[in-house]
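Q: Fold this one first, please.
A: Sequence and structure below.
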Amino acid sequence: MADRTTGHYVPGTLAGSRYQAFIPDPLPPHPPLDLSGGGLIARKERADQALGRLDGITLMLPDPELFLYQYVRKEALLSSQIEGTQSSLSDLLLFEADAAPGVPIDDVEEVSNYVAALKHGLRRLREDEFPLSLRLIREMHALLLRGGRGANKQPGEFRTGQVWIGGPSPALAHFVPPPPEALPDALAALERFLHEPAGSMPPLVKAALAHVQFETIHPFSDGNGRLGRLLITLILCSEGVLREPSLYLSLYFKRRRADYYDLLNGVRMCGDWESWLGFFLDGVADTAQQAVDTAQRLLALLARDRARIAALGKRAGNVGLVFEQFARRVLLTVPQVAPHLALSPPTIRAAVRALEELGIVNEVTGQQRHRVFAYQQYLDILSEGAQPL
């Protein structure tokens, strides 16, 4: 590891207590990163290869939207769980299906807002050809914190007060980000780094550095963790590494929270970017391979269930049409299926009963009216690792 500083401290006081706030130096690090140690070159190659496999399998899926629709929601859930929400994937899907009595609405709204923020960011990058910029980050933040618990946390606006991480006060905190008057310069430097031409730095390295810098600046009153994780995906998509937003590191960060925070502090305190980069690259490789495995298991499940439906004979046509709706949304009611098919409600209900008899779907509310059916095995595969903390 090169001996380097990564910023400087400035004094502050709050309610009579003194503290030191940290202002990071602009990226890239100086001296430059040393990739020769810690097997970093091999770890980067492994991560690049795993990303290539992941990008390839999304093209092989018969309906990539089917996979991504659910996968984006799983990432949204995991990223929000790290911040303390207690929703499950079923809660989110029921909420989106307008069939969620008893679900903690504030929690689920936070997760749903994450999905909206990601979709907005990608649409702006692709359809509007808008640069990955502070303005876009603020737009996404406004969506992330709309409604619910975030509405009073300055959605879409950079903070105007001092924040701290851990502890009851800045003086006793684990880390104190820059004071608000230092934000404009720190954020302008981050934006310049984001605008570095593609190819000037490997995209994975750029994403790893930008994530730490964003979390260190902590530019918003709330939502920094979720937005910092979104930033990784946006960089990889904007740099052309991924065609679809199919890589998400929240499960890796969730399972290794202590390591994650220790390594962030290692960068801030002694400039150890290399240890953080190794951790990040390992996370990319592991997470990308897990996503490939998940996609392959879901493809196998769909193929197996389609074959079972085909064996029904005369009923196979209508049952298959209804099944394909569950393959797209996982949790559905009969009225939600009806607009998508030229079938009568009684015919749809009969098809759902056939799917129940095959053990492919099951009713999840226990009610006689407003019944909701789940493609349970699909949901189970997707929910692995996504239980509330």
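Q: Good. Now the second chain.
A: Here it is, same layout.
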Amino acid sequence: MRNLVLLAMFAVASPARADRLKDLATVEGVRSNQLTGFGLVVGLAGTGDDASSPVVRRSLAAMLKRLGTTVDASEIKSKNVAAVVITAELPPFARPGQALDVQVSSMGSAKSLAGGTLITTPLKGPDQRTWAIAQGAVAVGGFLVEGGAGSQRKNHVTSARIPDGAMVEGDAPTAMPVRELVLILRAPDFTTASRVASAVDALLGPGTAAPRDAGAVAIKIDKRWTNNVSGLVATLEAIEVEPDLPARVVIDEKTGTVVIGGEVRLRAAAIAYGGLTVTIGEAPQVSQPGPFAGGTTEVVPRTTIDVSEGGGELHAIPAAASVADVAAALNALGVKPRDLIAILQTLHAAGALRAEVVVL
């Protein structure tokens, strides 16, 4: 396991800082939409799909037919073409002529998309309507070099991007609210929702906002803002609110990373830990028959196993009222990453760690 990275997400001396409402919430109904398309990337240097791929053959034949050339699909054999799936995100209030970034991903046996060009591809939404058209040279953040008996590759070369590679063809259907504006919290929380409503009331007047639940705050649109809802949203986005964050410890045992949230508290506890070490050694020996014995050479496995267990002294850790105190108390134990992860989980089970433990 890699060395443990113990991160304390807190400010030691400075007070908690409020966040903009723009970063905490979004407007209900104002959202992006996912677009998807199927296309072909051409111009590859022999790194495309298998020449016998029926998907590529039929797609190429259909494309050539649209361009006025009729070719039988069975006659097409090319390794310079790759079948790809194109994805993009249509932002709210998008207008015709607006450029979008697109992601191009191989769906066949292509080895690399480097140097390829995506031919004209319609991008459709869930309603099967074409919202954008994609085309252009793909950009791969890596390379693939092959030799007679080996290859060298950097990064993922079967996925690429086309910056501004799609052009919007229709207005995104986004309607602005008329009587009531609803803010959707990115991280639903009852306390945060109440604070948002209080901050809005303080700016626009009492009774303007009310939390519906932990994830939504409803705001009345009065006569001042009837014809300027965009201005109301801009005014609300500048409001600063201090969110109430949950006490949480996140553990990633694969990388040995522990992140402790700023609201985590630790009660006094006593911990006994000891490391169990198992060492397995392999020392195979070769059994060689004598001359003219007619036998065969055999490899005889020999395995040694050694088990040792460290001391299990009882260590007392004091109560900790801040993340800095929690980090200091745990670091004072001088434990290894795997032991510290186990200790955090055991402290939580014992009720001494006042936080939610999330294991990735």
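Q: Anything worth noting on the second one?
A: The chain is about 20% helix and 35% strand.
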